[in-house]
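Lab manual, section 2.4: Encoding a predicted structure.

Procedure: take the sequence of the chain (383 residues), apply the prediction step described in section 2.3, and record the output as structure tokens. A sample record is shown.
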Amino acid sequence: MHVPGRRRRDLLVLSSLGAVLFATSTGTAAAKLPQADPLQQQVDAVHDTGAVGVSAEVTSPDTRDIARAGTAERGTRRQMPLNGRFRIGSATKTFTATVVLQLAGEGRMSLEDTVERWLPGVVQGNGNDGSQITVRQLLQHTSGIRDIGPEIPALKSADGYRAERFRTYTPEELVGLAMQLPPKFFPDDEQWSYSNTNYILAAMITQKVTGRSWAQEVNDRIIRPLGLRDTSTPGTFPFILGPHAQGYAFSTGTGTSTDVTVLNSSMAVGSGSVISTAHDLNRFYAALLGGRLLAPAQLDEMTTTVNAPELHVRYGLGLAEIPLSCGGSYFGHRGELLGYIAWGGATRDGTRTAVVYVSSDGSQGTQQAMITLVDQELCRTRS
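Recorded output:
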């Protein structure tokens, strides 16, 4: 029977489709349904806890997996950017510790130097004494110096944020505020308390040792050598340039929250101000644990840990050691700075890395789901 050209092509397509469907239904073809993506399942689980947006990336030497869920802006359908930038918060501390350890490895300073040696008269008053605190104790959070974070209005409430989101703080001003408070304990390697002030002081010491700013040293020693093109030290600049999700904080009982994307993060110099992406963070962790940024002696110093009961982990110098459910442990750091929360790290040899972040102030359930994601992805092996 003759069939006109277009109709004939349509029949051929339908015939071919029918053959595939028949073969699949009768089991005569090897076609398989796509399997669920484990990373996407984990990201969906984080989103289900109430996060506005979630994005994650996992890497190994020959793979790079990305998953995302939620929206980049509340009330819209805009997807989370594939390589979105965000404030990495306290994951910045690993950058700062790396720079200090590089300087120690170069013989320009020592981890046993006192704060007083490099910053005379800065840490004193109300029981604080820089002559009794070492650089190591700053990086390890065993100095006893109080955390200045809770004293910053922009980080405490929506009203405080609106009033002070453009305010510039100097490191000296921040440490001065901390010195108005008595230490939590006297410097003691057996006691531990998390303090952003420790890393503000580490940034100040970096400048004293090198004659250059903390930001310059991080850029020249880490960001540029590793080619982290989406990572920056913004200083007082309050905007996130490039693709990014909006950040939200100060959730209320009505389910609303404040857009806190714009922020002068000078209150977190050295301790939480870096902007990066999940991809760049994975590259940083892989290079660090893989021995590309620190000599073996300095990497050993960084990964030698003490008990950190506040965080239920062990803590080295700017890195936490977290147990893996499959045995062993990994090294990484939680990060949070107003509207963005991140969790990430790498296996001990740096060959497998995982980073996840959310664009809202997550609940305890959100953070536990993030920890679970990193654990499961670092435990999972690829065939």
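Check your result against the sample. Residues 71 and 78 are 5 Å apart (CA to CA).
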